[in-house]
Amino acid sequence: MAENKQPVGLLFDIGGVCVVSPFQAILDYEIAQNIPPGWVNFSISRTSPHGSWHQLERGEIKMDADFFANFNKDLRSPELWKQFNARLRQNKAHGTAAAATLPPMPEVDAEWLFWEMMRISRTPDPYMFPALKKLRESGKFVVGALSNTVIYPEGHPYNEDAIGLKSQFDFFISSAHSGLRKPDPKIYEAALKEMDALAKKKGIGGASASDVVFFDDIGENLKAAKKAGMRTVKVTLGKTQDAVRELEKLTGLELLETKDKAKL
Predict the structure, then answer these.
(1) Which pairing describes strands 212-216 and 142-147: parallel, antiparallel, or unpaired?
(2) What's the confidence (pLDDT) of residue 94?
(3) In the 8-state DSSP scheme, what is residue 39?
(4) d(CA 194, CA 251)
(5) Euclidean distance between CA atoms 105 and 107, whole angstroms
(6) DSSP of 207-219, one letter per residue?
(7) Contacting residues for 28 by C-beta, under 8 A, at least 6 apart
(8) In terms of C-beta density within 10 A (0-12 exposed, 13-18 middle, 19 or more buried), how is residue 158 classed?
(9) Which has the closest alpha carbon to 208: 9, 61, 2, 64?
């Protein structure tokens, strides 16, 4: 696979890539509540694939009182709390000895935190979002979105695409609407099929997996994309400008604003 060849398709995760990361809301909450950083993400990831969060993102359950009650339970698992602290002790093994006594499990207001995550992730990323517009204007690539999403209750204001996010893409694959959630291999197959069809329709030839570069902020999602044959770029929390700079190298386009280039 030619790593340096210009891609036909560019595929983007949404949260933490095109909009501000919900992980930032989690980290801010943990710091404010004196919760060990990483606990919320650990407990969410370890309840996969049948945790309430994962069911919501596959569109299997509604966003209602039952979801929030079960999400709260997922963040209050004694067994996961033991595992998390065991990992903390292991990480500290090379430093001073960590206390063997299990500290009290933190109280997490799961519903408040959920809505804070949703709120913050409606803010366009200051570097990637303008770059997306320039990519679309160039007309040289198929630009797609592949995102783990949720479905808001009918009539909720977050159903409105206030920032015009979806209009930046040739196609948008949503986990909650498709019933498939990253890192399920089937959702990558669906994205590649759509990329290939749209590339042919645009008259720029087909798109094989190696013609597609996928941008995401979660390691397991990137590993699955690599396994599907795509090239990948890891987007680091708080460093989306680095991902845009990589996008510039891949496309040959100037995507960062002049003022932003001066900061790099």
Answers:
(1) unpaired
(2) 53
(3) H
(4) 20
(5) 7
(6) --GGGEEEEES-H
(7) none
(8) middle
(9) 9
The sign of the dihedral angle between the CA atoms of 228, 233, 237, 243 is negative
For 208-236, the pLDDT digits (tens) are 999 999 999 999 999 999 999 999 999 99
Question: Cα–Cα distance between 6 and 219 in angstroms, integer?
Answer: 23
Q: From edge to edge, which strands make up the β-sheet containing 171-174?
A: 171-174, 142-147, 9-12, 212-216, 231-234
* Residue partners of 74: CB distance under 8 A and separation at least 6: 43, 44, 47, 51, 52, 53, 110
Task: Give the number of other CB atoms < 10 A from CB of residue 68.
Answer: 17
| Residue with the two structure tokens 């890891």 | 234
Pairing mode, strands 9-12 and 171-174 = unpaired
Encoding tokens for residue 175?
Answer: 């986990």
Count the neighbouring beta carbons within 10 Å of the beta carbon of residue 33.
Answer: 13
pLDDT band at 108 (very low <50, low <70, confident <90, very high): very high
Tokens 């893409």 found at: 169
Please name each of the domains of the chain with its CATH number: 9-20+124-261 (3.40.50.1000), 22-120 (no CATH)
**39: burial class by Cβ within 10 Å (0-12, 13-18, 19+)?**
buried
What phi and psi, each to the nearest 5 degrees, are found at residue 215? -110, 125
